[in-house]
Amino acid sequence: MKSPLKIYLGDLTYNTVTLATEAFPLNVAYIGSYCKKLFGSDVEITLFKYIEKIEDAVTNDPPDILGLSNYCWSHNVSYEIFKLCKQKNPDVVNIWGGPNFPLDSPSQIKFMKKYSEVDVYIPTEGEIGFSNVVKRILDCNQKENSESIIRKDPIDGCITRDEKGELQFTIPTLRMNQLDEIPSPYLNGMLDSFFDGKLTPMLQTNRGCPFHCTFCTDGRDEVNKINHFSINRVQDEIEYISKKVPGNTHSLHISDLNFGMYNRDLEICEKLAQIQQRTEYPKFIKCTTGKNQKDKIIKAIKKLNDSLRVTMSVQSLDTEVLNNIRRDNISVDHMLELYPALKEANLQTTSEVILGLPGETYENHIQTLRDLVKAKMDEIVVHTCMLLDGSEMNVPQERKKWDLKTKFRVLQRDFAKLNSGKKVLEYEEVVVGSKTMTFEEYINLRILAFVIFVTNRGIVYDSILKFLDENKVDVFELYYEMYKNLKSASIQTQEIVEKFKKATIEELWDSPEELLENFEKDSEYEKLLNGEAGTQVIYHYLAVVISEGMDDWTEHVIQTTSDLIKKRPEFNEDLESEFKSVTNFARGLSHNVLGQDRLETNPEYHFMYDIPRWLSPKNTKKLNELKLDSKIKVSFALDDEQYKIVQDNIDVYGDSHVGRSKTLKMTPNQKLWRKPLASLKHTTYLCWGDSPDTV
User: Which of 61, 167, 268, 461 has the lowest tally of Cβ within 10 angstroms?
Assistant: First the structure.
């Protein structure tokens, strides 16, 4: 083989309306880096993230080997690129890899028959299997008839077809125990071109997951063992990223499935903290923290200056449901025990719940939400249950066992028109009912989840929530009453919730064929482009509320709180005075945080109570014990850093509802809401509460 083997590797993202998946293509970079180590100048490797770039490259200069990642968010477009490549170079070897692949043999055979343009599938980690394919071709010393070479004998770590078209494999899953055998694609410069001011650097410190959740593609026994990159390597990569990252990139992704659970994660956090102090990067770290060992996690990430949230991914708190999905959980009591430490470290918490799990009912889902509110989670995100290829829940016998009723919907932001004019989009299959939950219950629970998602966001309504708690009112009742009494809200708030409900129903289709046929129509595809369809509905309408209806939403929160408080037998003028202070504090924090004029519209209120001091984790006094000698005027403003973080994200993702929903995902909660500034003698401004003795 005189010239090097030309290899293209892609982890693709859509960017039609905004960037859909913003992470660096670290997964395929590992494969490329390992191949380069093994084969040197015998291979020429190019990495891709953007669809238009790989489409042009495949059309004008097709490779000898094309390797693409397979996730639910890039599945269909990857296959279109495979088909295009076969047209341009019939001898190309198309290799697909990733978790989006069925577990059971009959479904695997069906999959490979359906995707006939794929020559090789690598179902787990890709480095060894991919390099085995490359070696097979290099050893034959010819690029022609590569497909026949691949079919001749099984290849370790791969699923291929034999000459009769039957699936063949020896060891389909090969994992690398010593991860440092893979040269760092950061340190060798392979990822340099992706520091483009749009994408977010991704860091991986370990691989594998010790848990066995049936809804997850990482719940398989094959990936149960945890393997680590060395600490020195991870620290060197953090240093390298911090020097390369452009000024408008504020985020870092950590792809570990349980970050913070291991002792070494403390050292990684210490390194990140040093970088933050020196460079002010990263301001936001996106990752999933571990499912247990929360005390250890808090100790690790409290060093990171409120740039990372603690994730309590409980999925359900019902014992029977948890047993159905092979899951055990951190308990509500333990979460409550952690709360003081979380607040003292100024850490925000997110709890993830899945709606539609096997055995879930309307009642036990409500109880899960109630318990999470009791545990004082700052953000409660309810996801609709997805049936993923590669997860145990999606095998035929599990679907039948639970009588899972499903629909199909477009994956948010994942659609494009290729150069050929073909429209391509991604979809997912979701559970909308079962033998224990009706479709109507599913819709009603989605609406309640939206009310909680908007209102229980941490910081913005903390004063109201603490006031309810201090007066022995169940905070969950606030959310439930807001949900039940939406007709008492403003017309704008009612319209937003009604649009959310309508979008939640209309996003669902009975079959992939019906969905795809619909969006082939130009008029329907236009709805994807303008944000009428193809959005992540709950985040989309969160952006609508915060952008256009936050003041009205706040008034619905306040009115519902007022109704609950006035039912208390001890309600009097003093309590009404306290109520006025805590509600004005929420009004000030929440006002106009995304508008173009947000630096100029600073609301002002007078206060008789030191609200920030009362909200401090170190405070032990009740609000009535923190009454001021005289009223003070407080202005609520955004500082320059807050403005820049939000604006830089809007510039990357777009100033639309779709772009703003992505901006909200990429902005630390502490950097979003206004800050209270107390006016002393109308001359000096300082952050109210920073110096309690002064006020």
Answer: 61
